[in-house]
């Protein structure tokens, strides 16, 4: 069954006191348009993340977010006590040497000194943490794919409804089509008799009638449109990744509907064609969101 290109997935996992959040969402697009926002610790893994997403998502405008939420104990910046003590020692020496009064609040002065509250250690991504984070990525992408499948079911239901209505409308043309040959013949004869009386070449009239009726014949258009409608349904049932093919079939359906309209010389038939065009426009709008 077809899938929608609209989807959303989210996953949250924990590792050593911090929460790893992954969020991914997608909209329709002609190709894969992937935008990422990744926490600094995981940026070296961006190509691996992109490759995995591209394989699973295939197509769509995709926004991917990965961020980390740390608990308060990990967020606190440690005090560099050794450096603080060294500052205190040097400042006391300067005070004694030059007779400068020592500050009453040593703590405030020392905490403002360079690098006393600077976090010096560089955090590195370990294999164990990356395995946990990547599992969260897999879960979020899987959730998005499930979302797309559910949306695909809803799309398929709507599209099948449109196809059924076009099929019914196409069948409803037949009664008007059958009677119009005699109607056209009667109209032409009436006009001829009103202009030249009854003296006209009946053989020539028959020839002209055949030519005229052949130009208005829509049997081929009806058959081709019927084939396109059936092909559209079978393509939907083939599975996901059929969006572009369905769009092409819809274009071919439009050709046959337009030709039928140009050959329809009755108001009732024209009205039916307009209704078919309306259903087709709905199909095109829906197909634009099919993967």
Can you characterise this structure?
The chain is an alpha+beta fold. It folds into 3 domains: 7-74 and 125-148, 2-Layer Sandwich (Ribosomal Protein S5, domain 2); 79-111, no CATH class; 151-287, no CATH class. The chain has 10 helices and 4 strands; from the N terminus they run E-E-E-H-E-H-H-H-H-H-H-H-H-H. The chain has helices spanning 46-57, 72-75, 81-98, 106-111, 127-172, 174-196, 202-216, 219-236, 243-263, 267-287; strands spanning 7-15, 18-27, 32-38, 60-70. It has a 4-stranded mixed sheet. The radius of gyration is 37 Å and the shape is rod-shaped. The N and C termini lie close together (11 Å). The mean pLDDT is 86.
Tell me the layout of helices and strands:
Layout: E1 7-15, E2 18-27, E3 32-38, H1 46-57, E4 60-70, H2 72-75, H3 81-98, H4 106-111, H5 127-172, H6 174-196, H7 202-216, H8 219-236, H9 243-263, H10 267-287
Parallel strand pairs: 3-4
Antiparallel strand pairs: 1-2, 2-4
Helix pairs in contact: 1-5, 5-8, 5-10, 8-9, 9-10
Rounded average pLDDT = 86
Structural class: alpha+beta
Number of domains: 3
Which strand-content bin applies to the residues? 5-15%
Helix content, binned percent? 55-70%
**Shape field:** rod-shaped
First-residue to last-residue Cα separation? 11 Å
Order of helices and strands: EEEHEHHHHHHHHH
Low-confidence regions:
none
> Spatial order of the strands in the main sheet?
1-2-4-3
Query: Largest sheet at a glance?
Result: 4 strands, mixed
Count of helices? 10
Total count of strands: 4
Rg (CA only) = 37 Å
